[in-house]
Amino acid sequence: MSKSIMWAETDAKGFEAECLFNEDSRNYEVMVCASGRRLCRSESFAAHSDPMQGMTEEDRRKSVEIAERLVVEIEHELGDR
After folding, report:
1. What is the pLDDT of residue 2?
2. Which residues contact 42 (CB under 8 A, 6 or more apart)?
3. CA distance 80 to 53
4. Are 30 and 56 in contact (CB under 8 A)?
5. What pLDDT score was predicted for residue 1?
6. Residue 2 is inside which H or E element, if any?
7. What is the pLDDT of residues 1-35, one digit of tens each?
8. Whole-angstrom Cα distance, residue 74 to residue 20?
């Protein structure tokens, strides 16, 4: 399985989020990971296109929404919110 980074960012509080395409012979998957201090969370979903064509707007929107939710979950768990 190969992985390609589609986007990555770090917010002002130091929380990191990245979006990767996982590719195998059967399908393409978008994996979103978020981390902060000692915690990490991830979630994945089926991609609408292969990585060579780039991300669809729907995949990009969904990945950003997931990243934002995962960061909030980590913040709550750390007691930051």
Report:
1. 77
2. 31, 32, 33, 34, 70
3. 38
4. no
5. 61
6. strand 2-10
7. 678 888 999 988 889 999 998 877 677 889 999 99
8. 19
| DSSP string for residues in 3-56 | EEEEEEEE-TTS-EEEEEEEE-SS-EEEEEEEEETTEEEEEEEE-SS-GGG---
Compute the average pLDDT of residues 49-70: 87
Distance CA 25, CA 48 (A): 15
Among the listed residues 51, 63, 71, the one whose alpha carbon sits nearest the alpha carbon of residue 19:
63
The answer to whether 21 touches 53, Cβ cutoff 8 Å, is: no
